[in-house]
């Protein structure tokens, strides 16, 4: 199996705050910050992509009283990061190329 991903350098710093979000620092010094809910709703796994294609909301119910948190995170073979969520989900791999393309300026 090959992955046709653009060649993106891994961030030099990866910081996951379980309640606040993910901060990445790229080799060129750019810093990207992603909110947890933003990441969860855009989970790149096949299951969540399928739900979004059907126009369904991905992730915890927006009316849920429980705040979404990241339970755990793991680097995946130098090309991305997988996050385990408090809602039990955790199959999506956030490739650096996706995060880099998606970055929002501070
Ligand atoms: Zn997913």
Please provide a written account of the structure:
This protein has 106 residues and is an alpha+beta fold. It has a single domain, classed as NE0471 N-terminal domain-like. It has three helices and six strands. The chain has helices at residues 36-41, 46-53, 96-102, and strands at 13-17, 21-25, 31-34, 70-76, 80-85, 93-95. The strands form two sheets. It has a three-stranded antiparallel β-sheet with strand order 1-2-3. A three-stranded antiparallel β-sheet has the order 4-5-6. The chain starts with 12 loop residues before the first strand and ends with a helix. The relative contact order is 0.23. The model has no long low-confidence stretch (mean pLDDT 88). The structure holds zinc ion. Zinc ion binds at residues 43, 45, 47-48, 89, 91-92.
Strand order of the largest sheet: 1-2-3
Portion of residues in beta strands equals 25-35%
Stretches with pLDDT under 50, minimum 5 residues = none
Hetero compounds: zinc ion
Mean pLDDT over the full residue set: 88
What is the overall shape?
Answer: globular
CATH class: Alpha Beta
Strand elements, count = 6
Share of helix among residues?
Answer: 10-25%
Give the radius of gyration: 14 Å
In brief, what are we looking at here?
The protein has three helices and six strands. With 106 residues, it is of the alpha+beta class. The protein has a single domain, classed as NE0471 N-terminal domain-like (2-Layer Sandwich).
């Amino acid at each position: 199996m090959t992955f046709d991903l653009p060649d993106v350098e891994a961030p030099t710093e990866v910081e996951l705050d379980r309640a606040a979000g993910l901060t990445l620092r790229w080799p060129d010094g750019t810093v990207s910050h992603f909110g947890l809910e933003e990441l969860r709703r855009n989970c790149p796994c096949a299951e969540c992509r399928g739900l979004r294609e059907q126009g369904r909301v991905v992730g915890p119910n927006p009316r849920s009283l429980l705040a979404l948190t990241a339970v755990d995170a793991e680097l995946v073979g130098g090309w991305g990061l997988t996050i385990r969520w408090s809602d039990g989900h955790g199959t999506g791999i956030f490739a650096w190329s996706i995060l880099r393309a998606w970055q929002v300026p501070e």
